[in-house]
Amino acid sequence: MSWTDRDYLIALNMIQGIGGIRLRALWHHFGSFEKIWRASEEELRQISSIGPKIARAIAQARKDICPRTEQEWARRLGARIVTLVDEGYPSYLQRLAVPPPVLYVAGRLPQSPGIAVVGTRRPSRTGLAQARLFSSAIAVRGEAVISGLARGIDGAAHLAALEAGGQTVAVLGSHLGNIYPPEHQSLARRITAQGAVVSEYPSCSPTLPGNFPRRNRIIAGLSRGVLVVQAGAKSGTINTADWALELGLDVWAVPGEISDPLRAGCHNLIKQGAFLVTDPSELWGGELGPSAESGRETAAARESFSPGMGGKG
Questions:
Q1: Within 13 Å and on the Cβ side, how many CA atoms surround 284?
Q2: Regarding the domain with residue range 1-65, which homologous superfamily does it belong to in the CATH classification?
Q3: How is 53-67 classified by DSSP, letter by letter?
Q4: What confidence score (pLDDT) does residue 234 get?
């Protein structure tokens, strides 16, 4: 059975060590996904960013990988696979310098960027209350709440959006068959019914600590701005804010007691130019009326989409 470009892309994404940067280098060298897949180990070694280890991994992995089997795995989980060459690929992710080549999506993604609500995994009661307050307001306004399904602020943000009847998107640092943390499995199911759970990781990908900072760029990419509720000076939350700043997005931070280490990250962001917010209305310039862009894709996002590896970024 012949393969399509999306089949080759799904298969290449399943090879350990092949991410967006290396895939782009391969694309520019060979000019097609099929030629990448069929290239000899010697040909692959000629690319400086690949090297002998990755070239060997590609050559060996091709014997066992089948994209049709992977798509069936996703279907069994109630998900679909969306690739860069598909019309359904989220256009706003093209703002990233290197968009994820493949996404596994359970549920329905919003048509326009939402607002990310992120923070520490060990929040105070006040921090949890603030996450719920802001997330509920975002959902009621008609915008999606984007977060990472982690313990603490993330989980509170997702739950508040759901309880407000709004849409929320969870971006995983694991594949869809391994919801992490495990106690959020029921929350993930609720999110799927009212929004989407998203991962860039294939079924064969292990859940590694480095996956979680990496997924933060997708959280930012799915958003029009990032709200940091409570965060330490050095945390993955700040990494998400950094991605937002790189994309030219708004960053908001909730202040707190100056001696509280869980507010240090927020205070540092404010010093660097993030907007200080104490009320949800400040996310929209002081107004909480219905969003004019709610439920439809913005013109900027539409213009940014260009299928294939040669697109923007």
A1: 19
A2: 5' to 3' exonuclease, C-terminal subdomain (1.10.150.20)
A3: HHHHHHHHHTTT--H
A4: 87
pLDDT recorded at residue 196: 98
How many other CB atoms sit within 10 Å of the CB of residue 82? 20
Q: Which amino acid is at 95?
A: R
Q: Quote the tokens at residue 158.
A: 């997702």
Taking the C-alpha atoms of residue 177 and residue 302, their distance in angstroms, rounded to an integer, is 31
- As beta bridge partners, residue 228 has 118, 253
Q: What is the pTM of this model?
A: 0.88
**Cβ within 8 Å of residue 71, ≥6 positions away:** 10, 81
- Yes or no: is domain 105-284 CATH 3.40.50.450? yes
Q: Please list, residue by residue across 174-199, b when 16 or more beta carbons sit within 10 angstroms of its beta carbon and e when fewer do.
A: bbbbbbbeeebeebbebbbebbbbbb
Least confident of 57-66, 119-128, 136-145: 57-66
Task: pLDDT band for 62, please (50, 70, 90 cuts).
Answer: confident
pLDDT greater than 80 at residue 290: no
Residue intervals in the chain for CATH 1.10.150.20: 1-65
Closest by CA to 196, choosing from 157, 243, 145, is 145
pLDDT of residue 174: 96
Judge residue 288's burial from the number of C-beta atoms within 10 Å of its C-beta, 0-12 exposed, 13-18 middle, 19 or more buried. middle
Q: Is 170 left (phi over 0), alpha (psi -120 to 50) or beta?
A: beta
E strands, the chain, in order: 80-83, 102-107, 114-118, 145-147, 168-171, 196-199, 223-228, 250-253, 275-276
Tokens matching residue 258: 């100056």
**Contact predicate 117/147, CB 8 Å:** yes
